[in-house]
Design brief:
Shape of chain B: globular
Number of strands of chain B: 11
CATH topology of chain A: Mth169, Chain: A
Largest sheet of chain B: 9 strands, mixed
Number of helices of chain A: 2
Largest interface: A-B, 12 and 21 residues
Strand content of chain B: 25-35%
CATH class of chain B: Alpha Beta
Number of strands of chain A: 3
Strand content of chain A: 25-35%
Distance between the termini of chain B: 7 Å
Helix content of chain B: 10-25%
Structural class of chain A: alpha+beta
Strand order of the largest sheet of chain A: 2-1-3
CATH superfamily of chain B: Class I glutamine amidotransferase (GATase) domain
Helix content of chain A: 25-40%
Distance between the termini of chain A: 7 Å
CATH architecture of chain B: 3-Layer(aba) Sandwich
Shape of chain A: elongated
Number of domains of chain B: 1
Number of helices of chain B: 5
CATH topology of chain B: Rossmann fold
Order of helices and strands of chain B: EHEEHEHEEEEHEEEH
CATH class of chain A: Alpha Beta
Oligomer: heterodimer
């Protein structure tokens, strides 16, 4: 089985990289981009039977820093 | 005073840290990240700067889960002293020994230069050699030094006099201009600037020397 973990900076945490991307899009002439948040996607190849709870534990312990980041698990 | 300097793959200030501690009179051992225990009788653990594990995933995240870091957390929880500089500060926040996190610099650039630091408190082994309110110059060299914590945490740090240093001219967007913070028991210090790079005359600046001298004075009899 596979799982995909989406890690994003929490609302309220400044994302200077997202702000720079937004600025660059504007410079390229793409109007109407009101905001850009940049995160990361982590794909996991897992042994069959791995539970979503176990993936959650991986997120809490390593994959995300919950002080600044939120995560979303997608089981594929 | 017995000190241990931790080495991770990608640490690059470990030797500078060891030299500063040795020249201050400490008995220094370097400890590899795979060691699950610290040398017996260690008073101070120093986590040096660098790019542990290539900054993969997040700065300090993988180092914080290495075998030696479990021992460092135990050492701190038992009342031991821990100094984390630069990547060491990032690692300390990742272990949870210090609150908050270090984000990408607001200007997105790696910054390497001497900055002004204000001593916010002299109430710690690390800062007792300085006078609160005084300004010193210490080099920074980081890409992810933008200190972040939520409002309640920042208020608590300030209220408990746990902000050790602030930037006089904020270079990286840190909340509250915070450059270094102390743990609740004031024995764990994390700071982005490098006091070991402002230690001897050859560095052109010795403003960091008193941090080590203060530690030695406090721990000499420990």
């Amino acid at each position: 089985m596979k799982a995909r973990v989406h890690v994003m900076l929490k609302d309220g945490v400044l994302d200077p990289q997202g702000a720079a991307v937004k600025h660059a899009l504007g410079a390229l002439g793409f109007d109407g981009v009101d905001g850009v948040r940049q995160g990361k996607v982590i794909e996991l190849d897992l042994a069959d039977g791995t539970s979503e709870a176990q993936v959650g534990e991986m997120c809490e312990k390593l994959l995300a820093n919950t002080v600044i980041e939120s995560y979303r698990i997608e089981v594929l | 005073m017995k000190a241990a300097v931790i080495q991770f793959p990608g640490s690059n200030c470990d030797r500078d840290m060891a030299v500063a501690l040795e020249k201050s009179g400490a008995d220094v051992t370097t400890v590899w990240h795979k060691d699950a225990a610290l040398p017996k009788g260690v008073d101070l653990v120093a986590i040096p700067g660098g790019f542990s594990f290539g900054d993969y995933l997040r700065c300090g995240a993988i180092a914080a889960n290495s075998p030696v870091c479990n021992a460092v957390v135990d050492h701190a929880n038992a009342g031991g002293y821990v100094l984390g500089v630069c990547n060491g500060f990032q690692i300390l926040t990742e272990t949870g020994l210090l609150p908050g996190a270090l984000l990408r610099n607001a200007g997105l650039k790696y910054i390497c230069r001497t900055v002004g630091l204000k001593i916010e408190t002299s109430n710690s082994a690390y800062t007792e050699g300085y006078t609160a309110g005084v300004e010193i110059g210490v080099p920074i060299a980081h890409h992810d030094g933008n200190y972040f914590a939520d409002d309640a945490t920042i208020a608590q740090l300030k209220g408990d006099d746990r902000v050790a240093f602030t930037y006089t001219d904020n270079p990286n967007g840190s909340r509250g201009d915070i450059a270094g913070i102390l743990s609740e028991n004031r024995r764990v210090l994390g700071m982005m600037p490098h006091p070991e790079r402002a230690f001897e005359d050859a560095h052109g600046n010795t403003d960091g020397q008193r941090l080590f001298a203060g530690l030695m004075a406090q721990l000499a009899n420990a």
